[in-house]
Amino acid sequence: MTFYRGRFAPTPSGPLHFGSLVAALASYLDARRAGGEWRLRIEDIDPPRCPAGAADAIQRQLEAFGLHWDGPALWQHDRHDAYQAALTRLVDQGLAYPCSCSRKQWRDYPVYPGWCRQGVREPGRPVAWRLRSDLGLRPVMWQDRLFGEQCFDPADLGDVVLKRKDGLWAYQLAVVVDDADQGISDVVRGFDLLDNTPWQRQLQHALSYPEPRYLHLPLILGEDGQKLSKQNLAPALPTEDEAVRPLLHGALTALDQAPPAELREAPVAEQLAWAIDHWQVARLSAEPHRTHGADAALPD
Ligand code: GLU
């Protein structure tokens, strides 16, 4: 069996909702079905967006749903030195550069036009650090396990920010360094992150990291047809067992795994055992999944 290590990497900007449960569950089942490991990474690189207690709440929610991770959780706030080392490597290779431009200055362009590539335009001002996308101009390609072949033109991607002007690390760099350091073989996550993957592939290439396999999951929409998200005030997942059981069943339904109806009230461990045994990526539909009452019996 090929080596498998997956991960769930929530941003603790609030508690998990049904959409995040679906992503956590799919990556958990894919890992367990493969006899692999499943890691937890708390993506708290942006402290102002992460209220105190949210990461703990997320861990309690995962436990209530029986989604137990292997080893200790990795916290991004502890990872400054690793991110800095990666950025230094890119700078030394001429692949990253400081940039003083503001979004306002290039608002008429679809992506940042690379004005600071040859030197900071306004020295003395705060700088962000960007990845050069204009070197070795090869299309960025990968085979997504659900969405098939993906191909992006580097000119459309632009020079992605690796470190922000306020000194905070950008998600794209942190996720790539962490996936590599944690030895992640398989990334299973929501469709909304698919368009971030090309930058992550570029960075993996620039840093000579192995490339994980990718499975992006169908988008989960609420009853109103809107994406479930913290911004749309999707309700937090409960942790009481009576509420957890039908929701877990609903998440398996949202993943097109067709769990038997009688499993709906079964203990979490029993539902998960069934789901690991029956997990099939081939059943997943690439169409957005619209939840309805029975599917996602969330409390008000
Ligand atoms: N932290 C990201 C989120 O919560 C997920 C990152 C990933 O899975 O790559 O949306």
UniProtKB/TrEMBL annotation:
Q: What class of enzyme is it?
A: ligase
Q: Which cofactor does it need?
A: Zn(2+)
According to the UniProt entry, its GO molecular function terms are: ligase activity
Tell me which residues bind Zn(2+). Answer: C99, C101, Y112, C116
Q: Which InterPro entries match?
A: Glu-Q_tRNA(Asp)_Synthase, Glu/Gln-tRNA-synth, Glu/Gln-tRNA-synth_Ib_cat-dom, GluQ/Sye, Rossmann-like_a/b/a_fold
User: What detail does the entry give on cofactor binding?
Assistant: Binds 1 zinc ion per subunit.
Q: Where is this motif: 'KMSKS' region?
A: 227-231
Which residues are noted in the entry as ATP-binding? K230
Signal peptide bounds: none
Q: Which UniProt keywords apply?
A: Aminoacyl-tRNA synthetase, ATP-binding, Ligase, Metal-binding, Nucleotide-binding, Protein biosynthesis, Zinc
Instruction: Please give the start and end residues of each transmembrane region.
Output: none
> Where is the Glutamyl/glutaminyl-tRNA synthetase class Ib catalytic domain positioned along the sequence?
5-107, 122-234
Q: Where does L-glutamate bind?
A: R7, F8, A9, P10, T11, E43, Y171, R189
Q: Which Pfam families match?
A: tRNA-synt_1c
Q: Belongs to which family?
A: Belongs to the class-I aminoacyl-tRNA synthetase family. GluQ subfamily.
Give the matching NCBIfam families.
PRK05710.1-3, queuosine_YadB
Query: Which protein is depicted?
Result: Glutamyl-Q tRNA(Asp) synthetase
